[in-house]
Amino acid sequence: MRQRLRLPLLGALLVGLVATGCASTSDASSSTVRQASPKRAEGMPKLADLPANAYLSGPLHAKGGQFLTDDLGRVVQMHGVNAVYKLAPYRMTVTPGKVNTLNDADAERMARLGFNVVRLGVLWEGIEPGQGGPNQASVCSSGPGGDPHMWSDEVASRYLDEVAKVVAALGRHHIYALIDMHQDVWNQLFSGEGMPEWATCTDGNPITVYPGRWSENYSNPAVDAAFNHLFNNDVVGNLQGEYQRSWSAIASKFADNPWVVGYDPINEPADYSPSVIHERWYSPRLSCLYAGSSGAAREIGHNAALPCPAGAPKTGVIQAIERADHQHLVFPEVDNASHGRHPYLLGVIDLPRIVFNFHDYCAQRSGVTGNPTDLDACSGSELTTMVRRTQERDQMGSSTTPQGPAMFMTEFGATSSRALASLLSMDTTTLGLGWMWWSWRYYDDPTGSSAEALINDQQQLSPSALAIATTYPIAVAGTPLSSVLDPIDGQYSLTYLPDPKIDAPTTIYVSQSSYRAGYCTIVTGGIVTSKPGSGLLTVSSTKGADVTVVRIVPRACVGKVTTSTSP
Predict the structure, then answer these.
(1) How far apart are CA 160 and CA 542, in angstroms?
(2) Mean pLDDT by 10 residues, the chain (567 residues)
(3) Which domain covers residue 564, as residue numbers?
(4) What is the pTM of this model?
(5) N or C, fewer C-beta in 10 Å, the chain?
(6) What is the spatial distance between Cα 302 and Cα 222, in angstroms, rounded to a whole number?
(7) Are 300 and 279 in contact (CB under 8 A)?
C-alpha cells in the first residue's frame, strides 16, 4: 500500500516540477566525480568553514509552488523541531539550567543534527495576561466589540524581549525561528494552555476537566463555547481584535529580524462547525479569522468569498501580521478537526507570503508514549495525510500564488519509535516536505509526554533522533526532480535541473549517523566544492549541464575520477 500511494504522487510532483523548471543547455558534457571522505570518529559531524552563500541566510520566500526559496533563488528545504513552554512564564529562556532553557548549547546540537528551523512557541496568555478570570461580563457579554482594557505595552515588550534572545541564540547557529502562537484545548482551565483566562467565555457551561487524556476536553461544551466566541467575535471583549493586537506586537518586534522565517497564527485551531459548499467541506470561520470578511478567503474552484460570521472583522490576523511585517512568511494551519473522510478546507487565501501548514499524527499510536500500536497502519495513515495535503495545496492557487502556496508540516513525530521515525523520514524526503518534529525536549508539557522528546534530561538522544537526522538538501541551485533516501543504509541521491542564473552552490546536510566509516560522493553534472568529510556538502553544477545528480553512499570510493556525457 505504501508503494502504491507513493509512486503516483511522486510522478505527478515530478511532472509539475519539470513543467515549471528552468531551461538548461542540452547536449553538453559533464563529469562524474567521486570524492571520498575520511573515516569519522564517534560523535557529531563537523560543519565546514564554507563560503557565506553555502548557508541559508536572510528572509525566505514563498512565491508560488510547493517550495520555499532564498534570496539567491535556491529551493530551500527545512528540517527542525518544536520548542514550546506551556507553563508560566509561557516562553523559552536562554538562562542555563531552567526547565524552559533553549540557548546556544541546544542550538549548536540542533545544527549538528541537521536542523535549521525551530517552531518557537509564544502564548497569548504570556503576551496579554490581562486581569480577572473567565466569564467576565465586561468581556463576555454579547454586543459589538470594544476595548477590554487588558493590554499592557510594558508587559508585552518585556515578554517579547525574552523571546528575541532565544531567536538570537538560534540565529548564531544558522537556525531560523517560526514564531508559533500555541494553544491546546483553549487553556489551563481545561488541562491545556494558551489563551488568557479573561478571554474565556463559556456561555454558562461549567468549567470542568474531563477525565482521561487532555484531548478529551475538545468535546467539552465549555471549550466549544470559548472557541465559538473567538471564531464568531461576538462579545464586547472583541476577542479577535485583541488577538490581532498581540500578533501586531509580535510581527513589529521581529519585522527586521533575519532569523525569523515567519509566523504560525494559531496552533491546532478547533472549529467543529464545518460547512459544505459545492460538495466540499470547509472551515469558513477559521478562514475568516485568518483573512477577515473582505473576501480574501475564497472557495476552491470558484470565485465566491467564504461566508464569515457577522462579527468577523474586515481583515484578519494574517493582514494584521502583514501590515506590521512586510517580508516574513505566514503559516496558517488547517483545522485540527480536519481528519477522517472529510478534510475541512481553508479554501484559497488570496494574500501574499502564505505557506500551507499542517500537522500529521496517526490514530494507531499510544496516547501516553506516542509509539505506534500498529506500525504499518500508522505510517500508512501519516503518508496518506501527506499525500492528501499535497493535493489540497495544488488546488489553492491564487492571484498572489498561481501555482498554489508553499507547504510545510510543522508537527509530526511525538514518538520514540525509531521504526516509525525512519519511515516518516523516508516519505518526507521523497515528497520534498519541509518539517518540524514534535518535540526537542520535554518541557513539563501538560499536553504531552517525555517519550515525545528527542533529547532527554541526561542529554541522550532518543532512538527516533538519529532516524530523522538524515541526509537532505538544504538549498538546491535549481529545480529538484527527485530526492531519495534509503533509511536502512543511508544511501541518498538528489537529482535536479541546475539554474545557471543562481550564483551559489547546492548545499546538502550529510548525516553523521549513516556514515561513521566515511562516505563517497558521486556527482554527475557538477563538482564537489566542500572539503572531504564535511558535515555540509556543497556542489556546483558544471557549466552547460542539463541535469546534476548527487549520490552519497556509506563506503570508501573505488576507482578514479571518470568523465561521461550528460544524461
Answers:
(1) 46
(2) 38 35 31 57 50 89 94 97 98 96 96 96 98 98 96 98 98 97 97 98 97 93 97 98 98 98 96 90 96 96 94 98 98 83 86 96 88 96 94 93 95 95 95 97 92 91 93 97 89 97 96 86 96 91 96 77 34
(3) 24-51+480-567
(4) 0.92
(5) N
(6) 36
(7) no
